[in-house]
Amino acid sequence: MRVSFFIAFGTIRFMHYIDIHNEIRNWYRRNGRDELPWRQTDDPYKIYISEMMLQQTQVKTVLERYYFPFLKRFPTLQSVAEASLDEVLYAWQGLGYYRRARYIHETAKIAAPDLPTDVESLVKLPGIGQSTAHAVAVFSTHAPVAVLDANVKRILYRFFAKERTTPKELWQMADTLLDREHPYEYNQAMMDIGAMVCLPKAPKCDTCPLSSRCQGKEDPLKYPAKKAKKSRKSVVTHYLWIEKAEKILMIKRHGELLGGLYELPAVEVAPEGLKPIAQIVHDYTHFRRIAKIYRLENDAVEGEWIEKKRLDEIAVSSLEKKIFKALGIGD
Ligand code: SF4
Asked: Are 188 and 276 contained in the same domain?
């Protein structure tokens, strides 16, 4: 009884949006970003790497600076599994959110030589959430599941005229609208419509393939309701530049945020009587770091001595790169 009800409901649901599905598919054929390299492969590993990179980084940046060099260095999941975490972090440097690189390394150690392509196995791997699992499954095997990135979420809020919702409801909305007959094109199209048409500040409803049924198109900026802006906190950190015989003292970090990367030693209080030799402002998502750098002769601090000429061979965060640059080291 339950099974037949589900089938009946599923059929009604599919029929309900068939006109929209056709519009979306036609739009995708005319406007879709087919040229993106991760859309020209069904290799789950390459799709997975693109998804991990795109979680916090814009398409343009990933495309121009990170996707190809990373895959050149690590062409397969097996090659990641055989590498050290330091090597993976080195290839990831500059992309930020280094936890993603650690997850890729952990995932490779567990799953190599091949990444699974079914959602159930994928979500058991470190750092693979439901949306990433769905993306790998649908883009490598055309599994009938919905991808829910930030752009798609915005479309759903507007399409169903929801000011607020819960993650569970969002998944239900994504599942309701999904084109199960053509999940690959549908999902790629939704991501593109979110990036090119249903824009955060200036949605182009006139050219949107969802507009005939969009419940929020009269006042799209109302959806989703804006969150109160939190002011970004500033944190001052004092870094030490300790140099001896063309070597610099660095410390390897542990922990979630930047674990595995090297950084300059930091102290809570500015060294007495010293003026900073450089000052850098670096913005993170939730706070701003003001880094003051002091040259110190004292080498009583524990750490690793890295040759100055090798500083570009170790994995460091974007902040350290900025500091090196300010001090005339590297590009
Ligand atoms: S009609 Fe407008 S608000 Fe609705 S999904 Fe399209 S662009 Fe967004």
From this structure: no
> pTM of the full predicted structure?
0.78
Distance CA 75, CA 40 (A): 15
| Rounded CA separation 125/61 (Å) | 26
Same-domain status, 74 and 16? yes
Q: What is the pLDDT of residues 130-149, one digit of tens each?
A: 999 999 999 999 999 999 99
Please tell me the distance between residue 207's alpha carbon and the centre of ligand 1 in angstroms.
9
- Residue 228 is assigned to a structural domain of this protein: no
Range of the domain at 158: 4-222
**Total domain count for the chain?**
2
Pocket of ligand 1 (CB under 6 A): 155, 158-159, 197-198, 203-205, 208, 210-211, 214, 216-217, 220
Alpha helices, H only, the chain = 2-16, 18-31, 44-54, 59-61, 67-73, 77-82, 85-92, 99-111, 119-122, 130-141, 150-159, 167-177, 183-196, 318-326
211 has a pLDDT exceeding 50: yes
Total residue count of the chain as it appears in this document: 331
When mean pLDDT is compared across 179-183, 231-235, 288-292, the lowest value belongs to 231-235
The catalytic residue positions are: 51
Tens-digit pLDDT profile for residues 227-285? 877 778 999 999 999 998 899 999 988 876 667 889 999 888 888 888 999 999 998 87
- Beta strands 233-244; 304-307: pairing state: unpaired
Give the separation between CA 318 and CA 266, rounded to whole angstroms: 16
